[in-house]
Design brief:
Strand content: under 5%
Largest sheet: none
Shape: globular
Oligomer: single chain
Number of domains: 3
Radius of gyration: 28 Å
Distance between the termini: 79 Å
Helix content: over 70%
Order of helices and strands: HHHHHHHHHHHHHHHHHHHHHHHHHHHHHH
Amino acid sequence: MNGPDASGADASVVERRALWGVLTVALLLRMLQIAAAARSPITFNPGADESYYLQFGAWVAAHGLAVPTDFAFMDPAYGYLLGGVLGAFGGSVLAVYLLQAILDVVTTWLIHRCASDIGGSRSGLLAAAVYALCATAIMFTTTALKATLVAFCAAVWTLLALRLLRRPSAWRWLGIGLFGGLIVGVRGNLLLWSLGALVALPWLLPARRTGRRFADLSILALGVCVGLSLWSVRHAELGLGWSPLPFNGGIVLHHTYNPGNPRALMQMPEFVNYRHPLEIWHGYAREAERLHGRPMSPREVSAYWQGEALNYLFDHPAQFASNALRKLRELVAAPEIPNNRIYTQERALSPVLSVLPAPFPWLFGLGCTGLVLLVLHDRRTWAALIPLAACVATALIFFPEDRFRFHGVPTLAIGAGFALDRLLAWWRAADLRRATIVLVCVAALVGLSFALGRGVRYPERELEREAWGYLRMGQTQQAETLAHEAIATGEDNARLHELLGFLAAQRGDHALAVRHFGAAVALRPKAAGSWFSLAASLAETGDITAALAAIDAALEREEAPEFMLRKAQLLERAGDTGQAAAWYRRAAATASTEVAEAARARLRQWCADSSSAFAACADRSDAPEP
């Protein structure tokens, strides 16, 4: 194995200093990115999945580990970890970013250990440097997404597998199995790593261990089952059966494969109003219950939509194959296809990301070439390929977007380190033939990635999201300017009009607010929140009849406690005290503490007023129901 030219103790000192230098650079870049994120409007307007996990974490921080069923919809481990951090640091999202940055530096060190184990110390140092400078790794540390945690899990799992194959023992088999089961709570598809281990690891063992394959497999399977049991018990306590996986599987499969989505893109059917995970779940649950004419459990809802998706897949095998090929093309293409965050937008807002090259083409070229060389150099490399294979399989079936592709980056960094190591060694040895072959392979793969990227179309910036972020930062002028700019350039969507309507209402220009909220409901008629805002602005203009019609439209789409309270208030203003009483009582009976208290306070106030006509029926059990 090749290392630095220095030998003995001097070489060891040089290697340690170089490694500390790489880790210091990794930490510095991530700290600078956190400083940029603290001033970025995107931080103040998180994406749908980020919002879900921040809500999950806030609940855990406030109420403990017992969560509502809604927070069993997606993988739970990250939500619990967020809850611990938010609870310990007073709800600070920047504290989450800081801990993720530190975790990513640990991942950099783990990649160094993995690459050193199979490729030598210099290979490990170069692999760590590649990951330390990876722009997407830096970007994901400042998101409320699982990508940084998954990269850490990939590096830990790979190191455990390599150490196991070098020196097998029952405890190491049990350890990798237990870890593989536990990380299924981070992402359900990480179960593929354990399945791959069950198939591959026993056959990669030294020849002297072949007689123990059955025993080794049994211990590995035991560890996996013990790890999975933690999540099974959690779901059983929530009344969701004994599956270790969340109940979103059938829903994710269906919104990818259904008659309205022939290209298997990440888009929602018409009965889903918003892209927020909870809205997706509620929309799918409502539609399943409407079709069946009865209430359904979360597992029943998921099973129904899974069956629908599988039926569609079986009826369209050629379409599935065509989509899988397209997704493979997008997976290896240069651009970072956005999901929750847009890499090009993040680069524009971050001085750190703006000076670093787009990482994937170089990772793809160097990483794939290096992994081939590593397989020829040490057959244990096949174990390191398992997380990468799981990443590719997930992309082909579901999505090749950036945060899913990122799951394979630690493995590619290991390969890139070895490719660079071999190039240096062969260049110094004047072995130009082999060095040239490697350079040609790397250049061909990099060129292929860039060439395939020409056909990939994706939004490079979301002005609407930036505008809402500036609004939440208190920079209203910047928010309004961006919203008008977006509309002028053709990005005319409901959220932009909602923002402009909100700003108009803040200024007291309720007529303008009505126009913008009216445009919002015209563009997105199923959005209950837009109807609610329209009702509020109409009420401010004095048009109570139109306001009641708007709040009824909101309630048709979602029976939110806030909507019930607003309807009661509007009925009160319209003079319909009987119906107002009924809606106040209905709002008072909801689970929303704030709304219920407001409704009860109004009921008590009016019942205490003997001159009020409302007092005659406010507390009567025979008061009219809505």
